[in-house]
Specification:
This protein is of the alpha/beta class. Helices cover 42% and strands 18% of the residues.
Length: 338
């Protein structure tokens, strides 16, 4: 088994995404560089666990697991990490599909032994068939996608984005797993930043570590109709502020807000100017995009302020999990799990 063998972890939580889950697993199975295995981690949903176990009972290379930790995406990922057998562990959202060379581009990044993580580019699939005219590309992170302002090509970054990312197994040996109590928990408030916190923790544990984004490693992420509305945009921006405050409290504002300073001082003002120019030229949505950027910044700032107060008072905490690697399943167990 090569250290470049890749285990793919897909965390799932609801039967409402059944077709999306099947499509995600199918896209992993169609990779030009085959995955060692696909791990479906079910987040405290017995009916979904049973249904997926039946679905993939006869499918080689697919294992269905129950989240062994508390409810939430972070614990689901940690369960997958502990069970994975690959030297590289990749994560794919349950409502996304990967392009054919996704894993090949990930793997090529690890030719340098100092590279500890490689992320990719996530493109939105809008439920309405097209981007809402008012929705600024600078805020595509709101819907879990790559946003305008990230540099193109294969570049070194502070952190990768969790729904389209990979890590060396040794990264988790050095830094531990994803922090619980900070990321998403099913359909509750859409918090995030758990991958940011992990990446900062990783580079502190391994100062020589290199983290990359390769925009050729592409996935396509479904954006449901409910997330095309300004109400969700505002809620997600507020939640991001809350999450960023927790991260900054843990790792310090210098590292916790390092990338965000460039984003807010360069990328967003350019976006506002572009929106206003489009409005002057009578292009659809220009004023709306400019207004959404301003509203998004103010809302996130409000969340950050409140989150900072809560963090100082000890009202918001998270914990880092040490990953204990499970022994490889015996042949009989592996057949049953598949």
């Amino acid at each position: 088994m090569s250290e470049h063998d890749i285990s793919v972890v897909v965390c799932v939580y609801t039967e409402d995404r059944w077709e999306d889950i099947l499509a995600a697993v199918s896209s992993v199975g169609a990779q030009s560089l085959p995955a060692l295995e696909t791990l479906l981690v079910v987040d405290h949903n017995a009916a979904l666990l049973e249904r997926l176990t039946r679905e993939y009972k006869e499918t080689d290379g697919v294992r269905v697991l129950a989240n062994a930790g508390p409810r939430g995406l972070s614990a689901g990922r940690n369960t997958g990490i502990a069970a994975a057998r690959g030297g590289i562990i990749a994560f794919l959202d349950d409502d996304a599909v990967a392009e054919r060379d996704w894993l090949r581009y990930f793997a090529s990044g690890y030719d340098d032994p100092l590279v500890m993580a490689v992320g990719g580019r996530t493109m939105p699939i809008w439920a309405s068939g097209r981007r809402p005219a008012w929705f600024p590309e600078e805020f595509d992170w709101v819907v879990g996608c790559t946003y305008r302002g990230l540099p193109p090509g294969r570049v070194q970054v502070r952190n990768v984005l969790g729904g389209n990312a990979s890590f060396r197994r040794t990264a988790f040996d050095a830094a531990g797993g994803f922090a619980t109590g900070i990321g998403r928990d099913g359909d509750k408030r859409p918090l995030g930043c758990e991958e940011t916190e992990l990446c900062i923790r990783l580079t502190r544990a391994r100062p020589d570590a290199i983290l990359l984004i390769d925009d050729r490693a592409v996935i396509h992420h479904r954006v449901p109709e409910a997330r095309e509305h300004f109400a969700y945009f505002r809620t997600r921006a507020y939640a991001e502020g809350l999450s960023k405050a927790l991260v900054a409290r843990s790792v310090g504002a210098d590292k916790g807000l390092e990338s965000e300073r460039r984003y807010t001082t360069r990328v967003l003002p350019a976006g506002v100017a572009r929106g206003l120019r489009d409005a002057v030229l009578a292009r659809p949505g220009g004023a709306g995009r400019a207004g959404a950027i301003v509203a998004g910044v103010l809302t996130a700032a409000g969340g950050y302020a409140l989150g900072s107060i809560r963090a100082r008072r000890g009202g918001a905490t998270f914990s880092v999990v040490e990953i204990e690697v499970a022994p490889p399943p015996a042949a009989d167990d592996e057949e049953a799990a598949a």
